[in-house]
Amino acid sequence: xxxxxxxxxxxxxxxxxxxxxxxxxxxxxxxxxxxxxxxxxxxxxxxxxxxxxxxxxxxxxxxxxxxxxxxxxxxxxxxxxxxxxxxxxxxxxxxxxxxxxxxxxxxxxx
Length: 110
Known about the structure:
The protein has 110 residues and is α+β, with helices and mostly antiparallel strands. It has a single domain, classed as STM4215-like, CATH 3.30.2000.30. 20% of the residues lie in helices and 42% in strands. The chain has helices at residues 8-20, 59-67; strands at residues 28-39, 44-54, 81-93, 99-108. It has a four-stranded antiparallel beta sheet with strand order 1-2-4-3. Strand 1 (28-39) and strand 2 (44-54) form a beta hairpin. The protein is elongated and about 45 Å long. The model has no long low-confidence stretch (mean pLDDT 94).
């Protein structure tokens, strides 16, 4: 069976992350997304890892505000919930002034 490029949970999570960036979401470019199945004794879900490039003036400021307190954010999924989410590692500055960052998340099914 072919797996879609992005699962429903991944698509919903991406939409919520971009919504969190607000009016500046157009400055966030998704460069890589991976999702893998995950399960414990009581839950089923997916682990996600996403790389973004933030461009434009004051890219570091936007990246910082976008990911600040991400682990406390209310990110309601249509079916399920975000069990864990965080920025992994440090921001990576590029020569052109843009900033790269990685976000990791665990989504769980209801």
